[in-house]
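TASK: fixed-backbone design
INPUT:
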């Protein structure tokens, strides 16, 4: 009986240790919303205040530091989403999600968003003389500072995704990806609007659509 009791205590203790370790690990991957950080690349101190909705408010003494901080906090909250967007737009999802995503990769490569991104990055972000170039590149540096020194998001660990620096090309990959989805939505709305205007709102009922656009 004593042996069974000891085994039970040992099992419960082990289970508690495992749960505690998991909770500690999950908490360690959460974004940092308070405290002080020393980041390489900032010219002057920057203050980032989060409101009750988790929205960061950035107070900097110059534009480049503001965009640098924006890149850092954006990556802190959204690095996995940013990673998936650049992979989707560049036709590289199957590298981490397997052959089921090959059709999606072929679609985006056929659309040529990766070619667009390379060309635009070379055309517009190959220097840092203009104000928009300084802002974009400072934002990119802020992202990479988090990639380099920030806590690895849980999704990267689970899926075995390597953390790699973001480039000017990745900025335009995101632009191309969002433009694609906006165009898809806009096309659909235009089509349904034409049906409503020319045939009447009753026709939209068969499509399970409302008559407001």
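OUTPUT:
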């Amino acid at each position: 009986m004593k042996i069974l009791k000891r085994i039970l205590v040992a099992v419960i203790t082990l289970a508690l240790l495992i749960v505690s370790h998991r909770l500690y690990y999950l908490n360690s991957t959460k974004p940092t919303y308070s405290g002080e950080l020393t980041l390489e690349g900032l010219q002057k101190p920057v203050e980032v205040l989060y409101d009750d909705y988790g929205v960061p408010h950035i107070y900097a003494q110059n534009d480049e530091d503001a965009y640098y901080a924006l890149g850092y906090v954006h990556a802190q909250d959204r690095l996995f989403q940013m990673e998936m967007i650049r992979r989707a737009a560049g036709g590289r999802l199957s590298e981490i999600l397997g052959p089921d995503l090959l059709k999606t990769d072929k679609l985006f490569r056929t659309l040529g968003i990766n070619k667009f991104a390379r060309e635009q990055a070379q055309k517009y972000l190959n220097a840092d003389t203009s104000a928009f170039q300084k802002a974009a590149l400072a934002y990119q540096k802020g992202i990479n500072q988090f990639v380099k020194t920030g806590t690895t998001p849980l999704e990267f660990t689970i899926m075995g995704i390597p953390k790699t620096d973001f480039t000017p090309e990745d900025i335009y990959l995101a632009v191309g990806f969002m433009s694609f989805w906006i165009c898809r939505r806009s096309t659909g709305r235009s089509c349904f609007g034409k049906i409503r205007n020319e045939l009447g709102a009753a026709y939209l009922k068969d499509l399970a659509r409302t008559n407001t656009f």
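COMMENT: The mean pLDDT is 84.
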